[in-house]
Specification:
Layout (H helix, E strand, L loop, with lengths): L5 E4 L5 H13 L4 E4 L9 H9 L5 E4 L2 E2 L5 H14 L4 E6 L5 H4 L7 H16 L4 E4 L4 E5 L15 E3 L4 H10 L2 E2 L9 H15 L10 E8 L3 H18 L1 H6 L4 H10 L6 H8 L4 H7 L1 E3 L1 H13 L4 E6 L4 H7 L7
Parallel strand pairs: 1-2, 1-12, 2-3, 3-5, 4-5, 5-8, 8-9, 10-11, 10-12
Antiparallel strand pairs: 6-7
Helix pairs in contact: 3-5, 5-6, 6-7, 8-11, 8-12
Length: about 325
């Protein structure tokens, strides 16, 4: 395959179907699959284990777990176990989660940068098979190690990718991460600032942005019928316009459109509100922040993200025909 490409799955498909899609993507040359964990619907670890047990080559990443609901020792033990299933194929993708969901389950996300730094530091040392003592503000461990009695005791190669969005978390990712999992529903131009922050952080650890892998989630709605493809992405775009207006503004969406959307949507939005708000979202906004349209159009849009610094598009398929999207990118996106 000429270009790196990966698959992103959330909860739109039964898990048995998701396994088949991952196997199909592996056969078609995809590099990795990333399993979402965001809303209270499907955790990442169980699907990752299923994918690991039913594939041979494809890498498997969490896209992303959070650093609040699992302590650092449990995170390390979980990803050690996944690495037992698929040695050297597991990627730990971790993020800072989001409000109001975190707040609604009783978690106060204070000092997110320090909390992430401490969690990643301890997890990395544990996976390196070190005996770890660490007394931070969020992570406290005394003389612990991964207590392997049976099995491989050598350090595990589980790279840590941080799902960063804000500039400070992006800089921290450049400093301490093996990679950054860049967000979706942003315009390619958004990446320019992200790469600047990654480079700023990377230089603190003697690296540059070129040393940081930069896969990026990209919403992909592909259909031979262009209108059907755009309509397939419009609902997700509309919801995101309402939930993440700061990111949308950074991507070039007009304040006037965001204000109109906010007059219609509450959180959580009802289906009726979403349907009404969708009528306000024009095609050019859908195509600004997603790869939607015919196969040629979506490949061209993905090339824009790559030109803006993405090293591996992680394609989030919308619509029923997931295999069509996989086939569209089976030869990369250069054609």
């Amino acid at each position: 395959m000429a270009d790196r490409v990966a698959l992103y799955l959330q909860d739109a498909h039964p898990l048995a179907d998701a396994i088949e899609y991952v196997q199909y993507a592996e056969d078609r040359g995809f590099e990795a699959v990333w399993q979402a964990e965001s809303r209270l619907v499907r955790d990442a670890v169980v699907p990752m284990a299923a994918f690991a047990a039913t594939t041979r080559r494809i890498k498997i990443g969490s896209g992303v777990i959070n650093n609040w609901t699992r302590n650092a020792a449990l995170t390390a033990a979980t990803f050690l176990t996944l690495d037992d299933l698929a040695p050297d194929r597991i990627i730990l993708g971790i993020g800072a989660w989001w409000d109001p969901l975190a707040r609604n389950v009783g978690i106060e996300r204070r000092k997110p940068l320090l909390a992430m730094r401490e969690h990643v530091t301890v997890v990395r040392d544990l996976l390196a098979m070190k005996n770890v003592t660490f007394h931070g503000e969020f992570v406290h461990v005394d003389g612990i190690e991964l207590d392997i009695v049976h099995g491989r005791r050598e350090p595990r190669h589980v790279p840590i990718y941080i799902g960063a969005t804000g500039p400070q978390m992006m800089a921290l990712t450049g400093e301490i991460g093996d990679g950054a999992l860049l967000n979706y529903l942003v315009s390619p131009a958004y990446n320019v600032q992200a790469l600047e922050q990654l480079d700023k952080g990377a230089r603190l650890s003697g690296r540059t942005v070129d040393d940081i892998d930069r896969p990026q989630l990209v919403v992909c709605s592909v259909d031979s019928d262009r209108k059907r493809a755009l309509d397939g992405a419009r609902k997700l775009v509309t919801q995101y316009l309402g939930q993440q207006p700061h990111i949308m503004k950074a991507s070039g969406v007009s304040t006037e459109l965001l204000d109109e959307i906010h007059q219609v949507l509450t959180w959580p939005a009802t289906e009726e509100q979403i349907e009404r708000a969708m009528e306000l979202v024009p095609d050019d906004v859908v195509q600004l922040i997603t790869a939607s349209g015919t196969p040629d159009e979506v490949r061209a849009k993905v090339r824009e993200y790559v030109a803006a610094g993405c090293t591996c598009p992680v394609l989030y398929p919308l619509g029923d025909d997931v295999r069509l999207m996989i086939d569209t990118f089976a030869g990369g996106y250069s054609a």
